[in-house]
C-alpha cells in the first residue's frame, strides 16, 4: 500500500469495511434535516417500491469518502469529490446493519507548479454490488 507522499498510478488505498445501522440513519437525519420516511419506515419504503429502509445517498457518499480522507490524513487536502448513486444501501432493522465495503485506487498523479495532485477512484460495494458510480476524488498530495 502506498502513502500519499509516494503515491503512484495504480496504488491501492487501505480498504474500509463499515456497517451502517438504523441508529446511524437516525443520527444522519438529525444532522442533515432529511427525515424522509424511506430512511426509517419499512412501511413507507415498501410503498415507495424499495426493498426496505435505505441509507441516505449523501451518507453513503460521505462514508465512502472516508477511504480518501483516512489515506491522505487531512480532509482539507481534498479538492473535489463527486459520484453518481447507482443502487441503494438497504439497512436492516438489527444491530449489525448493512456492510459497505469501500476501496480506492490512485487513477492518476499529476504535478503543476510543484503541487502533486492525485485522482482517486472510489468503489463502494453493498451486497456484492456497487452502490456508487464514477466516484472520484481529487486530492493534493502532501510534500
TrEMBL record:
GO terms for cellular component: fatty acid synthase complex. It holds the Pfam family MaoC_dehydratas. GO terms for biological process: fatty acid biosynthetic process. CDD domains: SAV4209_like. Residues 16-109 form the MaoC-like domain. InterPro entries: Fatty_acid_synthase, HotDog_dom_sf, MaoC-like_dom. SUPFAM superfamilies: Thioesterase/thiol ester dehydrase-isomerase. One of its GO terms (molecular function) is fatty acid synthase activity. Belongs to the enoyl-CoA hydratase/isomerase family. This is MaoC family dehydratase. It comes from Pseudonocardia halophobica. The lineage of its organism: Bacteria, Bacillati, Actinomycetota, Actinomycetes, Pseudonocardiales.
Amino acid at each position: 500500500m502506498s502513502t500519499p507522499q509516494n503515491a503512484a498510478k495504480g496504488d491501492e488505498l487501505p480498504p474500509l469495511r463499515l456497517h451502517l445501522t438504523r441508529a446511524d440513519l437516525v443520527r444522519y437525519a438529525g444532522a442533515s434535516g432529511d427525515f424522509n420516511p424511506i430512511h426509517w419506515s419499512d412501511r413507507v419504503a415498501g410503498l415507495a417500491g424499495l426493498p426496505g429502509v435505505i441509507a441516505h445517498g449523501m451518507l453513503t457518499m460521505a462514508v465512502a469518502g472516508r477511504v480518501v480522507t483516512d489515506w491522505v490524513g487531512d480532509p482539507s487536502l481534498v479538492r473535489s469529490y463527486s459520484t453518481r448513486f447507482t443502487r441503494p444501501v438497504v439497512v436492516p432493522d438489527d444491530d449489525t446493519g448493512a456492510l459497505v465495503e469501500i476501496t480506492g485506487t490512485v487513477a492518476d498523479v499529476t504535478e503543476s507548479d510543484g503541487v502533486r495532485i492525485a485522482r482517486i477512484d472510489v468503489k463502494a460495494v453493498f451486497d456484492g454490488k456497487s452502490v456508487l458510480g464514477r466516484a472520484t476524488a481529487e486530492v493534493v498530495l502532501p510534500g
